[in-house]
Amino acid sequence: MRDIAVFSGSAHPELAAEVCAHLGVPLSPTRVSRFANDCLEVQLQANCRERDVFLIQPLVKPVQEHLVELLLMCDAARGASAGRITVVMPHYSYARSDKKDAPRISLGGRLVADLLVAAGASRVLAMTLHAPQVHGFFSVPVDHLHALRELAAHFRQYDLTRTTVVSPDLGNAKEAAAFARMIGAQVAAGAKQRYADDRVTISSVIGDVAGRDVIVLDDEIAKGSTVLELLDRLRESQPRSIRIACTHGLFAAGALKRLTEQPDVLEIVCTNTVPVPVEDHDEYQAYKDKLRVLSIAPALAEAVRRIHNGESVSALFDAPRDE
Questions:
Q1: In whole numbers, what is the pLDDT of the chain averaged over residues?
Q2: CA angle 263, 267, 273 (to 5 degrees)
Q3: Which entry of 99, 174, 192, 257 is annotated as an active-site residue?
């Protein structure tokens, strides 16, 4: 593939390398340095002039560092006369700041979108935004992928005749219903109220889960408080089995440990949009029996190829995936 340059920030270089391997192009080097006054400086160490430039950087912890790094990458590519700059953002953490639900509150999702465009982004490729309206915060084209096909391909290895997909709340019920249709399952949802970022209550589960194989599906799992609250409600109905699935496995503040310690949770499935936060090899060994990390690199690579060639990206969702 010619006239394409792919760069990675420091947030998730392993994913960028995997995307490039599927594309058959090299991952161009990026130098990130820091001045004595703590300011960042970014240099893209490959030719960008009139090339189709793709910058791969999920916004993960430390989010603000990685955001500024991404903005500087955009600025560097624009200053190097890039023909087009596409920000490949597998996880857009500021998408959670998408509404004014309190007085004098900031709309970070829209502000960061404006910053990326101001820095030089011509296009954005995102994966499973927290809410569909975030797409509209950007004044440039956005290709919005989801990981439902990857998740569905994984769960089809099981007997799904008595399966119910459960959304933790009604806001995610549409995605849960789409996933349920893909695997031929029923759908249910929790009646959730959020009081703080890590404090929620779920009063009941709407739908049939008694004696059934449950797949809890959410877009992301951060501290895991919502999922743990949902598990308490599900247990009241005595499901036959419980599995957990999400696109973005952030697993902050020990969430992965708390979830894997639940004796009735058979499996936790996520994708590699973000690095799985295990500190060392021994910690990973403790979690690996229940944790499954699926790769979305092939989907991202195919989307990048289609964007570069001017082909339809939405057609990715129409074609069935080979088993």
A1: 92
A2: 135
A3: 192
